[in-house]
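ok so i was messing around last nite and threw this chain in just to see what happens. nothing serious, just curious
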Amino acid sequence: MIENFLTPRLTGRRFDDHSIPLEFLRDLSVLEEMITEVAKWKYLEDHEERQRTPRSFTNGIELKLTGIEDGSVRPVISLILAGASLFAPENQLYFESARDAIIHAIGAAERNEPFKNFLPEKALSYFDRFGRSLQDGEAIEFIDQSSSTTARLTKETRRKLVLSSSSVNELSEETFVRGVIPEIDQQKLSFHIQPAYGKRIKAPLSPQHDDVILKASNGYKDRVLVLVQGIGKFDRQERLKEFESVEHVSILDPLDVSARLDELRILRDGWLEGFGKKLDSNGLDWLSLQFEQQFPDDVQLPYLFPTEQGNISAEWSLETNEITLEINLVSHTASWHLLNLESQHEQVLQFNLDDVTDWENLVTKLRQLQENNA
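result:
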């Protein structure tokens, strides 16, 4: 017998095209573990005379992903029962009670209400793995059947749930770091990555990444940059302590925009002989994302420099053409200036970098100049 058990809704930019990243399947696997353990806890609460659940407690009952609702991002999780009966077996009722308790705890955490009465403390530790793939602005939404309200698991509510225990001092999350590789410890199978600012971060060294890490380490003096992506361990102050696991390592372009912007974040007021404004942090985040989303790989990346006014100057030298694009990190506008060194022809343009069309026009101009000089 198959019963619809849970249909969470995924919200956020990654799910706008009604598809689900494969990494989310790991979250569902952890959710199954958590539901099973909470169901056992519920059973023992009702049977105080017992020290453990019956060995057959999970026999004949499974949770499976059986589909995705049409026109939405709602994975359908079904409860699979062996055999057929007019009445629900006792263990099914505990699985349903566990599901409801988890949803109640998420909802309470979202509303800043007490939630420890819904789940045992050891069950809260499952949130360190469940929801770990969530990014900023994303949520897993559950319907609370008892109140018809929505409980939303976000990065923030997940953090509350995990760190509610005084015995928990760290949280694991998907993260990435750009930097150089100053050190490899082959005996301990680890390496360190040095970001543009902050301390070195330790990470495990696995065979599939050996060649890339070694190449980056050999290029340390030449500042060969890498991007390390994986699961990081964060302390209660949200500081990255180390990588728990590494999933991807890639060598970056020497002109990688995000890496260069990371270097410019350390500038403080007065960085230019007493003058020079600190660069707006939110503006740097915005510009990094814009280049990631709007700038194609086949167009030459610019050299980036800070300006005294707190802006970014993006500069290209394309044969006889010198191009400067001064980007205002607050207004998100940009001033284009082109000078042809042979003809002395100048061109001045304005772009709104919050406008996709303006980005397309900017890229088209750069591509044409690049092709003319090829």
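not much to say yet. The longest strand covers residues 170-185.
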